[in-house]
Amino acid sequence: MKDLFKGCWTIPNLLSFIRILLIPVFAYLYYNDMKVEAVAVLAASGLSDMFDGKIARRFNQISALGKVLDPVADKLTQITIAVMLLLDFKDAENKMINAFGWVFLVFLIKEAVMLIGGLVMLLLNIRPGAAEIYGKLATTVFYVGMTLIIAIGPEVGALNELLGFQMPALLTGIIVVISAIMTLVAFASYMPETFRQFKEYFDNRKAEKSAK
User: Fold this and answer.
1) Are 152 and 160 in contact, with CB atoms under 8 Å apart?
2) Is the CA virtual torsion 82, 84, 89, 91 positive or negative?
3) For the whole model, what pTM was predicted?
4) What are the structural domains, with CATH classification, of the chain?
5) What is the spatial distance between Cα 194 and Cα 121, in angstroms, rounded to a whole number?
6) How far apart are CA 119 and CA 122, in angstroms?
7) What is the pLDDT of residues 95-148, one digit of tens each?
């Protein structure tokens, strides 16, 4: 744990921390039907997520804490968005939107499993790996797709009245399903390395016991 905080005072880590602080702000705004403001907060969160990795690589500010803090910020943000949209979709009058609402359970289950798994790894002193390309792509698709839905989705869109336009229900459902598929692909991409790390840990423990 001591090594986890070595060299942690970096701009990317600050951006990740700000993203975590923006989560309750987004939830409050969305819950209180201030969805235009919620869209702005979500967009700012997504942009900070995009830039923190670029800054870390460009200025050599990659840190052990950043490798943990960045995915935690992503997962907490995605869980919050999924919960908010699940509730909205369940209450929608449009039957198609109502049906697609249950797809958000995929996001919630996947993120809950990864958060619990990551916590177990840290408790066992196993360093979770950095995000794979599939994970980064899935996060980008999720942020873009959910921001569009919150902005112009049928019944839930913050800008529908202002623009006089809303996204078709079928397109909304397709975006949700594509995001869910990308999420499952990303989840599967983490499994081989995660299993390898657990196997290595338990093999080492077994070897230590045998040596005694």
Assistant:
1) yes
2) positive
3) 0.81
4) 3-211 (1.20.120.1760)
5) 9
6) 5
7) 889 888 889 998 899 888 887 887 888 788 777 665 568 888 888 898 889 989
